[in-house]
Structure formats: structure tokens, C-alpha cells
Target: Cyclic di-GMP phosphodiesterase Gmr
Amino acid sequence: MPGDSDFFEAEKALIKEARELIKGEKCDKETLLKSFTILTEQFDKLIRDVEKIIKISDGQQEYLHRIQGDLKKEIEDRIRAEEKLKYFAAIDSLTGCYNRGMGLAFLDNELNAIKRNKSFFSICYIDVNGLKYVNDNFGHFEGDELLVMVCRFIKQVIRSNDILCRLGGDEFLIIFSNSKKENVEKAIERINFDINSENEKKLKPYSVSFSYGIFQVDYDNNLSIDEIIQRADAKMYENKQKCKKLD
Model:
């Protein structure tokens, strides 16, 4: 492709010739007419060439806009796909609460936070009672409904900054940020009150309940995550045995 300086070389030469003819003292009509005709034809060709270039440029711009739109949509689709992957990687698909891995990550963050701030938090280990009985007698779908129901009652009481996660099966963990054991006891009492009110309606062929264990974690403790969960689990087992004796 010729450079920009050569693109209008023929036209420039004709204009130069026309100017020389105009400046000349004697210019016959025939010479002027011939030069003007050639110049007009070249100018007409130039206009057509420019129009072609403009059309090509417009087409390229349209193509670039289309490509840009397609690329933007692809990026947005990928972002949404990544967000879905992150969501499903963090959320228990049945109950909608956090899964075990994410729950342990939150617990680790909470441990680091209280050590920095010299603060405290509490956890509550929950075991839903009677899941095997419900599964065996009313089917696994009803067993799933039991777990979902318990989670719903818990979410209605705990704060937005508290974390509920499913450890697996019928076991759940609640992380109560900046809360003492006494405050967690009150929250669990409210949850149990709501569940008992639902049981009184006799909408299910079984009673909904759970056993729980609360453990307060202070900043000066040297317990690992596993040890903290084990402490709360042991408290939960004590509560479960106590409830069995009352039955």
C-alpha cells in the first residue's frame, strides 16, 4: 500500500500543472480545457475512492462494535459463571447455609480477629434429633424437609453477622461473633420456643427438635479449630443425654 504522501500524487501533479497554466501569460483554450477535463476526472475518481474508504471504515467500525458487544457479553457470562461456582463451592445445596469448608474458614477468621482485638466469640454445635427416624419412617424427602425447617428457624433468630454452616448430615455449627455464652443461650431459647410453637400445630407426624452445645472462645485461649469444635460437640452430647433422660 502506498504511503500517505503518495496517495494523492496524481492529483497534486495536475493541480500544480493547472496553477502553472493559470500563472502563464499565454494559455490557449484547448490546453486549459484538456487540463481541466483531466483534473475533473481525477477529482471525480478521488471522491469515489474516498467514499469507498468511508464505507470500509464504517463497516470496520460496525464490526468492531459488534465484536466489542460480543466480548462484553462473554466477560459478563464468565463473571456470572465464576460467581455461581463460588456460591456452590461455599453453600450447602440442601439447606442454603454455608457448607463445612466455608464454615471452618469463617471460624479461622474469627479466631484471628479475637486475637487481634482481644475479644471473644461463641459457637453452638447443633445436632438435629430424630433424622434417622424420619428418614426410615417417612422417607428421605421428609428428612430433608426436617433439616431445612430447623435451618429456617435458626436463621429467623440469629443476627445477619452470625454464621450458620452445615458440618454434615444432621450436624450444624453457628458462629456468634462478639457474643458471650449467655447471649447464645438466649438465642437458642428463642429458636426452641419457635420450634415448639410449630410442633403444637401438629402439621408434621413427628416433633422437631435439636440438641446443642455452646462453647465460648476467648482471645487468650490456645485451642485449635478442631479442639474448639470438639468442646462444643461434647457439650452437645451432654445436652442430648439429658434430653433422653427427660423423655
Notes: The longest helix spans residues 29-90. The CA atoms of residues 108 and 224 lie 9 Å apart.
